[in-house]
């Protein structure tokens, strides 16, 4: 539950989660090292069109699983062919802040076709349970930033601490389609000046996963860092190799430098797709959701066009790809550049907090 500030009033997240949303993270100058780096995001190219496909969560969709109020819904195809939506802060009762606060939870669609996603099950049987231990003492939570599958194993990355004040991030694996999770490792919240807090993984066909990361705090300008890690060493922090610019050249093993313009990032989603790679993210200034498509993990993102996928609006004026208080933007497996499906979250009051599916058209490589 961490949407951008909407145009109208909404409950205080600090009050709802019983913790301050401030933060003391600071950049360490990494963003300035790369040629062409800038603290200002480029204006995006031509706007795509799109439309809402369906609500994926809500009282009617997921209330019977004790999860009427939830967000994020990171979609991952499980080894058994089902689709798991890994959600963030989840509540029962009458709205956001209600009883039985859990995070993360797993909601399942037995049909993984993007055209037929419907939550018809959950991790926990009849009632969605927390996937990992998290007691929320002192207002802490466990926010998923990515979930992905390599072979018969699923992996989940979580950001832990009071919201936007990440103490550490940790990494988990599941060998039973997301039903149970085993702890692998963790990273300190201040690594690379905080720019290794929020991670997203693209599973490549060369034996590597490529990892993009940012600060997890929308009020702080962050670079976007790139690492690679062999798929058989995902749980070993020492195996993550940075990509950086030094001595006049980009190379693996250099200290990490930002691979695109530093900015205020929301959620990020990095995927191998259509013979290349896709990056979807929530952009904070100006507020919209964007995507880039490029041939290689090391492609020049400073010059790759940024294409708008979702635009903000106010409640009552939604339509097409205009969404009130949008965030998230996780790519649904099975998407293509020409037929992109996104899991988009929304939160602007206690009863408007959900995950929705949007189909975006008109994007180009």
Automatic annotation (TrEMBL):
Residues 59-359 form the DUF4185 domain. Keywords: Signal. Residues 40-64 are annotated as: Disordered. SUPFAM superfamilies: Sialidases. Residues 40-51 have a biased composition (Low complexity). InterPro entries: DUF4185, Sialidase_sf, TAT_signal. The keyword Protease does not apply. This is DUF4185 domain-containing protein.
